[in-house]
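For the sake of transparency, this paper describes our internal protein records without simplification. The record that follows is passed on verbatim for readers who wish to inspect the format:
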Amino acid sequence: MQAVYRKQDIGKMANQLRLLQIANVLSYVIYLVVHFHAYFGLWPRDEEDYNPLTYITPAPFVFYTLSILTSILFGGLIIYQFFESAENTVVDGVKFHFIGITLFSSGALIAFSQGNTIIAFLFLLVLTLQVSYAYYNIRNEYPAENLADKIFIHAPFSVYHAWVIESLLISFFAAFIPDAVRGQEPAIWVRVVVAGALIFIEFTALSYIDVAGKGDIVGSLVLAYVLYGISVKQDYDGFRITAFWLSLVTLIYSFTPFLKGWIRGRRGESAPLLG
């Protein structure tokens, strides 16, 4: 009798897995369609129509490269989920959150395209929670066991979590802070808010290395890239120079895990042998 129940449980779990995999595929298709139309298709080609010129908006190349990179990595995740080695992480680590991630991301982009910045901010707020749960769950409970896990499971969420943090800040500025005006200095209170946002990005990038991400170099490099994009886009010297130097600091600090590993290796080589 117990054997019969076990077979039924296994069959039920297999059906749930297949249902989750199919739902992931469909949600990924929706994600691709919406983002393709937003960046390359039927919607306005001027990026400022759906990426407002805030004081922390990066250059257009950041939007394009990270959107393409994320789409490719998510595509790899969708394919890799059908491999047996990925089933445990997909079912118990990511769960249904990938579906929410793709749908809320698409909803936020549609809201931006229609000028509904507050709705877009709310979408991105929920999206950030979804991505953060999946990211921290994977990093802490489902460490990569092989190179495929690093590329197809960990890398997509590392890149996207960093990018969503920046997107949430952009949506906040678009909804509640006056837009940037070229050639015009921002008010003092705006400078304070922007400085706080840039510092927040910097500390988030550093936390990927030391705290939350447990050596997540990918996430840190993404935010270094974002900070560089901000320095390119902004024309107010205070924001432009600050973002550039924070980007440089983040870039250098991102490679400290390699440096620490090299130092440990050198110490191991020079340690005396015990007889």
Notes: The first helix runs from residue 2 to 40. Confidence is low (pLDDT under 50) at residues 1-8. The radius of gyration is 21 Å. Residues 128 and 164 are 6 Å apart (CA to CA).
